[in-house]
Design brief:
CATH class of the largest domain in chain B: Alpha Beta
Helix content of chain B: 40-55%
CATH topology of chain A: ABC transporter involved in vitamin B12 uptake, BtuC
Number of helices of chain A: 11
Radius of gyration of chain B: 24 Å
Distance between the termini of chain A: 43 Å
Distance between the termini of chain B: 93 Å
Oligomer: heterodimer
Order of helices and strands of chain B: HEHEHEHEHEHEHEHEHEHHEHHHEEEE
Strand order of the largest sheet of chain A: 1-4
Shape of chain B: elongated
Largest sheet of chain A: 2 strands, antiparallel
Strand order of the largest sheet of chain B: 2-1-3-4-5
Largest sheet of chain B: 5 strands, parallel
Radius of gyration of chain A: 19 Å
CATH class of chain A: Mainly Alpha
Chain lengths: 305, 393
Amino acid sequence: MELFLQFCINGLMLGMMYALVAVGFTLFFGVLDVIVFSHGDTVMVGSFAGLSMYWWLNAVYPGLSPEWTVLWIFFAAVAAVVAMGTLAARFMIMPLRKAPPLNTLLATMMLGTVLREAIRLFFPDGSNPKPFPRLLPDWAWQNGNLILRFDNILLFSMGALVIILVYLLIARTRLGMAIRAVAQDEEAARLMGVNFTLIVMTTFAVGSAVAAFAGVMNGLYYNEINFSLGLLLGAIGFSAAVIGGLGNIYGAILGGFIFAFLQTLGAVVLPFASAYKDVFAFGSVITLMAIRPTGLIAEPSSQRV
Amino acid sequence: MGIATLFRVLIFCLSLAGLSVDSGIAAAKTTVKVGFIGPLTGGVSSNGLGGRNSAELAVMERNEDPSSRYAYEFVALDDECKSNIGVQAATKMAADRKVIAAVTHYCSAVALSTVDIYHRFGLPVVVWGAVQPDITYGNDYPEIMRICGTMINQNEEAAKFMRSLGYKKFAIIHDTTDYGKSHKDYFTKYLVENGGEILDVFGVTSDQQDFTAELTKIKSLNPEVIYFGGLTPLGVRVRSQMEKLGIRAQFEGVSGIKSDAFIEGLGKELAEGCLSFIEGTPTEKLPGGRKFLKAYQSRNFAQGPEAYGPFAYTAMVQILDAIEKVGPDRKKVTATLNATKDAPTLVGDVTYDSHGQNIVPVISKYVVQDGVWALWEDSEYASGKRKLVNSKQ
């Protein structure tokens, strides 16, 4: 039983990380009908921006308390990644809006490679894994095989809070209404006086902020980051968004947790070695897609896919 | 073109030739290229850079020696510890006819995929850091030699040592490359022979981030030791996540984690008490080891020599000696290197067997103590002052 609970906790943490990445994919697709493949690498840039902030704080304000340090790290990561995301939206994705979707797909894929290589080449010693500071309190409650760590609970709740905030922003605010209007019908929204460019850029800012949060969360959870962590994370986040139903936030969350569940299952239950857990998880995604091509929670818009 | 023009061109050419003869007097030696390939970027680059610096040190020293017959040019290429990149680097190096011999590869998977290339081009290479047995024993290529030992001896020694400490129950995590898999195989073989027990084995991909599922399962099996067969980046993650899940087991690594990057990546506290096994005697205890370290430090390299630096250095010295002896000819250099027998070197006496494998019987045991890899015999763990996790002693 304890063991089962421990697997659940691990799976939930992993699922939250995937869900945060999937939310970004789904948001971009919902509004602009584009798949932004560089999203996984955006997460990675977020964690490196956070690490840079930590180094800077350490050099300039060596005595800063861990709480403030964590807040500043989050702030720096979000600021850097939001700036990057909106710029990419304005100067790369919007100009390509009239081009075939394949072009956007390719362009964002290239952008991902550029980001990855840039960190590898220009970040000091960027090709080596970097230790990410342990800033959260390490209180833990242990009972046999079960260990419940305070930092896990904190990260999980923060992740959940971020997703709820994004949901409220989209469902309850005027800005959200404008985003939904653009998602539904771009031209009608324009005619109603919605500033299209601004809305697209705002959507990208929101999606990138979530990615930055996921990046720092990744660092705080594993205490180690590297330039290539976005590669697999992006593929998983995208798969999660697709099995959930691209364009639907609930779907992204559901997809994220399903994927984490599949991976954990693959590592634990299957008799053959855990080396195949990704094969198993991605294979299951293919099966799910064959059964429900529009995702588990189908969005009217995804009928267009 | 008139005769006069031709004549002028001829004069011009002659004067150029004259110039080159003049400048040739200052550097009368022919230039010979020697190569180095290792992971200069990527997760294990600290080892690669240490190896490169050590090999370069050997070349620098030779070039400063007035009695050497040739001027040596050092060519270093990056294999990123990836087979596909390694194959490109090896082909580039081997295809350059001016390169007479090279010191190659830290990563076993890369070394395995490049041996055919060196053989095809006839380029003699000395492997400096890859320990998978088949690199030398899986072929009959005279061009391939290896100065460091194989993981067979390493794991035999490791298994016997762990049993002598009273450990019985082990769980294994290994990466699914040839390197990690072979470590698992040899360790399992020797552990079982010596009465140990393997509770479960987990193969993981070499870029995996999350090990909580595997480790949770291991935790429920309650092993005394977690044996990790893989390289530094993965080792850091496994050890770090062990702690997060509150697993009380001794962490036993292989030669692939014996790097300063392992301790840096984990921090002093978490790295404390981790074990590693590696071929050869520690540098500072070797004949001439102190001299090597001093010479290395005097060049102000940005990185330390790491565990395999002395091997890379020695391999390069042997290559340079062979070129001095028989001239810059790949075939002759291969034959000379192959014939090496009981040669006294920095890493002890070197003898290549029929497969070009140096027979190094010594395996050193290391434990992290206060943020450095300490030789087991000199550590406070051996003296009983500190204790390993689950220690029976």
